[in-house]
Amino acid sequence: MDKYPVDTPPVQSLDDLREQESPIVIFGAGFAGQVLFNLCTSANIDIACICDNNGDKSKLDLPGCEVIPASELVNRYSDACFIIAAADIGDVVLQLSELGYENWIAGGLLLKGIDISEHACKGPLEFLEYSVSTCILCHESYLTPDKIFLRSVDLVITERCSLKCQDCSNLMQYYEAPINYDSASLIMTVDSFLNEVDEVNEFRVIGGEPFMNKRIDLVLTHLSAHEKIKKVVIYTNGTIVPKGDVLKALMNEKIVLIVTDYEALSRNIDQLKQILDENKITYYAAKAQNWTDCAAIGPQHRSVDEQKDVYKRCCAKNLFTILDGKFYRCPFSAHVDRLKAVPKDESDYVDIAGFASNQENAKTLKSNIRDFVFDKDQLGACDYCVGRFLEDPKITPGIQTSAPLSYQRRR
Prior knowledge:
By secondary structure, this protein is an alpha/beta fold. The chain is 32% helix and 16% strand. The protein contains 15 helices and 13 strands. The strands form 2 sheets. An 8-stranded mixed sheet has the order 10-9-8-7-6-11-12-13, with helices on both faces. A 5-stranded parallel sheet has the order 3-2-1-4-5, sandwiched between helices. Helix 7 runs parallel beside helix 8 and helix 8 runs parallel beside helix 9 (244-250). It starts with 13 loop residues before the first helix and ends in a 37-residue tail after the last helix.
């Protein structure tokens, strides 16, 4: 999400692409990248391949197109023109520049105004449309330096969970006395935050298990009504079936549920999907996957340069998180601070509630958020994280623990 100094990209349209003599590569193998491939193919533009930082995506079966890991680019193509399809375009522009590539186009510019159904790939149409709209918004924002646009912000509404996963990347397994957060305080923090930013593509309502907070309906209703928020996404594990006011709050076109299927552990998932279908509530259910061993807490004793490298390669550094009135860069930094598992470092967050309650400081909140979003190159918390990278080996998701895991308090 970071904004890097950028000139207008040299390639801006399908006509520009037709004039390219270099091989054309799509960077990003997600839904937006696949739609862009279909769009270019229908426009008789040859695509050499699609690449992605997630090496697992090289296993995708895309007829007529090879998918390769980004690590193979330099060996395969000494020169190329890139159509960037990844939402975090700033990270990709920097990566390409470091590899010696300067010829690129923001793929979101090509996607504006197209009929997604004419270029659809495998997947539910509503999620293709959502992925495409996210790509467009992120790329337009990147090319508009004065705008504070965030692809997503996690709002932690509870530390309680109906499962006890020992490898939870949000560190729920360490909480000995988890709590629900008060809905009024959550709403005040969100409003103070939104007063200072221009737009948020999605607020991700998470926990723990968000339905453990029985007043989630108040938060959802407020988020759904806010004009600066495009979507409200709820992450649930299929153990709790909403009803009453909570179910009513879900009946909003802005709301999407992501249901993670942990098989036998997701004991009510069939009933949940039935209720969602009956009430025409948008959701997407998928098996738990892509877990990595990133939940350990402990000092790594890295140098400053090593810290910066870990931060640059981290796949979670743009998972901005609001927890207990503070705005963090990622879930790990949020929860290790909350757990007091790292030395106190006020540069690791923006104290939204603290600034909002002090009129003298409130005027600096926007600049602090901007600096935090666009200018960070490492966190103090990074030195207590083993790292979270796309190339990390995958582990079995959802292994349960019978008791909270121990950790060393640092303050």
